[in-house]
Amino acid sequence: xxxxxxxxxxxxxxxxxxxxxxxxxxxxxxxxxxxxxxxxxxxxxxxxxxxxxxxxxxxxxxxxxxxxxxxxxxxxxxxxxxxxxxxxxxxxxxxxxxxxxxxxxxxxxxxxxxxxxxxxxxxxxxxxxxxxxxxxxxxxxxxxxxxxxxxxxxxxxxxxxxxxxxxxxxxxxxxxxxxxxxxxxxxxxxxxxxxxxxxxxxxxxxxxxxxxxxxxxxxxxxxxxxxxxxxxxxxxxxxxxxxxxxxxxxxxxxxxxxxxxxxxxxxxxxxxxxxxxxxxxxxxxxxxxxxxxxxxxxxxxxxxxxxxxxxxxxxxxxxxxx
Length: 322
Prior knowledge:
Layout: H1 2-8, H2 31-37, H3 43-60, E1 64-69, H4 71-75, H5 78-87, E2 93-96, H6 98-109, E3 113-114, H7 121-127, E4 129-132, E5 135-138, H8 140-163, H9 169-180, H10 186-193, E6 197-198, H11 206-214, H12 225-237, E7 242-247, H13 251-261, E8 266-273, H14 287-293, E9 296-306, H15 309-320
Parallel strand pairs: 1-2, 1-7, 2-6, 7-8, 8-9
Antiparallel strand pairs: 3-5, 4-5
Helix pairs in contact: 3-15, 5-10, 6-8, 8-11, 9-10
């Protein structure tokens, strides 16, 4: 019995560190103190607090901030949060997907509607309604988008012929932001504030569908993705300090990290996603894996926050960008 007791009540060595403590709701609520309390809450709350501090350091040290996000981010109300960042020039470079471009523009034409995760796909299809999680997007939004984008394709084609120049996806996004002329648009503010927007998967979505229809009669229209690849890498190489902030993963995560390989790694990195690393995917890879590739500096400040960006990212903006 004594041996069992000795095992259970084994004496411990002293350790140092901050005591675990949450926010005190007995006091008058203060958002900044609330976020500060996350540091000692534990679990992903602590990672969130660390991420906020890393982003603060990016800004304090005037790092070039490479901001990446997947299309589902723009499908949600986070689009308005990103619009705030672009309007106030709080980020320097954007990398996103085709859906991350078109859905911002479509929302300027007609809004998305709150739906239900469990709505019947069959019934929605019969009604001509598309579902993104619990967000509904009726097909008439894409019809409106086609009417909007086709004249832009015509202008690009004319310039291609007259100037003997093949335009890039980033130049197409510039034209979309200029043409939409709507202060609710992310890319309107990117156009106004000269924030480059890179979209290596420009055809993966409705924009690709519109290209398909347009090229039935205009095969000669082209976009040069490789020129944008060079432009992004050159910006990265010339950045005195480099900071990475990525919502989601996949292509946007790899493109930003890979560009930073050319400068021997980013100085700061904050990932926010729910992907796991067990299958070897780049999406689930932790920042330290990027260190092994030279995409983040070994002595860089880095963190991965596991969680839903729709909940966490507004807190990051309040804590790091306000």
